[in-house]
Amino acid sequence: MFKNSGTYLLYGNRYCGIEHSSKNNTSIIYVSILKKTKKEVLIDTLYETVSIKDVAPKLSKDIACFLVINNEQVISKKINSNQKEHIKIVNTAFPNINLNDFIYEVIQQNSSHFVSICRTSYVEKLISEYQEAGVSIIDVSLGNSIIANSLGFIKEQEICTSNALISVNNQEITFIKAIENIDPHPQDVNGLEVSKEQMLSFNAALTLLLGTRKTESNFESSRHMLQSDFKQSVFFRKFLKVGGLLIFLLLLVNFLFFNYYFNKVGVLQQTSQVNQEVKSKIIGLTEKLDKSQKTVDMILNGSTSKSSFFINSIIQSLPSSIQLSEINYQPLTKRIKASEPIVYDADIILISGDSSNSELFSYWIKDLENESWIKKVDISRYSDSPNPISSFGLKLTITHD
C-alpha cells in the first residue's frame, strides 16, 4: 500500500498532520499522528486543541509536521477550464491576484479544477509561531486540497472533512461544499476508521508519510527550505546524541584499557620492588660471603707457613714425658654466628696436654721462652697432684719481630 518516503533516521516512524480549522466560529486545531510499522500504518494519536502552544507538548522534537490551513483565511474556487498550466488556472480563478502576496494550491483535473489561496504573510506567521513553539512544519496545504492525495484509499463517493462535504466520481472531485453539521460516523480509509473532524490532518500525515503530492503550488521553494532546516536540525540533534554516545564509549573503552594496563603496571611495579628487595638482600649476602671468604683466605694464606713452623718448633722441643692433646693456633674468641663477623686471636697459640715429669716440664717451658718467635708463655693451668701425671694448659703469645 505504502512506499517508503524517506529514511528512518530522518523521519523516524511517526508522521504528524495539523489542521487549522474553525468550529462554531471558533478557531480549532486538529492533530493526527500516524505510526509506520514494517507492514502497515496505524493511528498513533488524535487530538484537538485551540492553541499552538498546546500542540508541542505531545510531539517529539524529531517529528515532521504537515500543516493544513482550512479556515477563513483561505479562499477556494472551482473552475472549468482546459488549461494545463497551474499558473494560468490560478489566473483564471483569480484574475487580479498578485502571486507574490499569496500562496496558492491547485487540484488539477481533466476539465474541472479547484484553486485555494491564502496570504503569504499569514502562512509565514503560522509557521513562525509553530517554530517558536518547537514544532517542525515542513509542508503546507490549503483548504481541502490535501484530500486529492488520498482518493485512491477511500471507496466512498462522499467524503466529509471538518467543514466541508466532498463529492467524488471516478477518482475525481466533482464539488467541495462547505457544511456546518457533520455526520459523526467515522470514514474508512483503507481499513482505518478516521473521524471526519480529523480527516484533513490524517490525510496530511498520510501524504507526508507517502511522500507523494497530486496538487500544484507555488510553495515549493519554501517547502524545500523548511525540509532542509528540518534535516539539519534532526541531523544536529542526532549527531549530538550519537557523538555523545561515541565519546562516552571511547572514554569507557579508554578507561577499561587504562585500568587494565594500570593494574598490570601496578603488578609489575610490585614485582619489581620485590625483585629489588631480593636483589639488595642477595647483594648484602654476597658482600658478607665475600668478606668472610677473604677473612678465611687471609687466615689460611697468611698463616699456613707460620703455623707449620710454630707447630714444628713446639714438637721438636717437646720432652718425651709430655703428651699433647691440643694445639690451637689463632683460637676463636667467641662462637661463630651467621650475622656476626669471625673474631679470633691472631697472635695466640693454646696448648694443652699431660706431663709425667714436672722437672722436664719446667725445662720445656724455659726452652719455649727462649724461642725467638715466642714473646710470652703463660701457664693457664697445671694440676700438681700426687699422681704421676699432671694436666696442663699453656698460652703462647707470638711476636712479629
What does this structure look like?
The protein contains 6 helices and 18 strands. The strands form 5 sheets. A 5-stranded mixed sheet has the order 3-2-1-4-8, sandwiched between helices. Strands 5-7-6-14 form a 4-stranded antiparallel sheet. By secondary structure, the chain is of the alpha+beta class. It starts with 7 loop residues before the first helix and ends with a strand. It is rod-shaped, with a radius of gyration of 59 Å.
Secondary-structure-derived class = alpha+beta
Per the principal axes of the C-alpha atoms, what is the gross shape? rod-shaped
Radius of gyration over all CA atoms, rounded: 59 Å
How far apart are the first and last residues' alpha carbons, in Å?
128 Å
Helix content: 25-40%
Strand order of the largest sheet: 3-2-1-4-8
- Strand residue percentage: 25-35%
Mean pLDDT: 85
How many strand elements?
18
Low-confidence stretches: 1-6
DSSP summary: helix tally: 6
N-to-C order of helices and strands? HEEEEEHEEHEEEEEEHEHEEHEE
Reported for the largest beta sheet, the result is:
5 strands, mixed
Descriptors for this entry?
401 residues, single chain, alpha+beta, 4-stranded antiparallel β-sheet, 5-stranded mixed β-sheet
Short précis:
The protein is an alpha+beta fold. The chain has 6 helices and 18 strands.
Any chance you could write out the topology, listing elements then pairs?
Blueprint: H1 8-11, E1 14-23, E2 26-36, E3 41-49, E4 64-69, E5 75-80, H2 86-93, E6 102-108, E7 112-119, H3 120-132, E8 136-142, E9 158-160, E10 164-169, E11 172-178, E12 187-189, E13 192-194, H4 199-210, E14 216-217, H5 220-316, E15 322-329, E16 348-355, H6 358-369, E17 374-382, E18 390-398
Parallel strand pairs: 1-4, 4-8
Antiparallel strand pairs: 1-2, 2-3, 5-7, 6-7, 6-14, 9-10, 10-11, 12-13, 15-16, 16-18, 17-18
